[in-house]
Design brief:
Layout lengths: L17 H7 L6 E6 L4 E6 L12 H15 L8 H25 L6
Antiparallel strand pairs: 1-2
C-alpha cells in the first residue's frame, strides 16, 4: 500500500493516514517499535503490557498456562462446585500462610 507523504511536527509527532490505520486494525492508542533501516524508518505495531500485568507474561506463567491447556485437551479436568472451589482456595491460602510463618520462624536474625 503506497500512501501520500506525511508531515512530522516540531515535537516529532506523525499522523498515520486513516487507510493505513484501518489496514493495521489500529483503532485506539497504539505503540510501535522503531527501526532505522537503510531505506528509512520502519514502524512495527507492538502490544504494550501495563506493568501491573507483566507478571502474567513471564515464561513461568506462560508455561503453566500451556500445561493447563494441554491438560484440558487431554481430558485431565475435574468439576468443582463454587463451594468446593472456595474451600480449595481457602486451603491453598492457609498452606501459603503456614509456609510463610515457617520460613519466618526459621529465618536467622541478622546482626546489626
Amino acid at each position: 500500500m503506497t500512501l501520500k507523504p506525511i508531515a512530522m511536527s516540531r515535537t516529532g509527532r506523525l499522523t498515520l493516514p486513516a487507510p493505513a490505520r484501518k489496514e493495521l486494525g489500529l483503532t485506539d492508542v497504539a505503540y510501535f517499535d522503531v527501526e532505522l533501516t537503510e531505506e528509512g524508518i520502519l514502524l512495527r505495531p507492538v502490544t504494550a503490557i501495563p506493568p501491573e500485568d507483566a507478571w502474567a507474561y513471564t515464561p513461568k506463567v506462560l508455561a503453566s498456562i500451556q500445561r493447563g491447556l494441554e491438560d484440558i485437551a487431554a481430558g485431565r479436568t475435574i468439576r468443582m462446585s463454587p463451594a468446593e472451589l472456595d474451600a480449595y482456595g481457602d486451603a491453598a491460602e492457609a498452606a501459603r500462610e503456614a509456609e510463610a510463618a515457617k520460613k519466618a520462624k526459621n529465618a536467622k536474625p541478622q546482626a546489626s
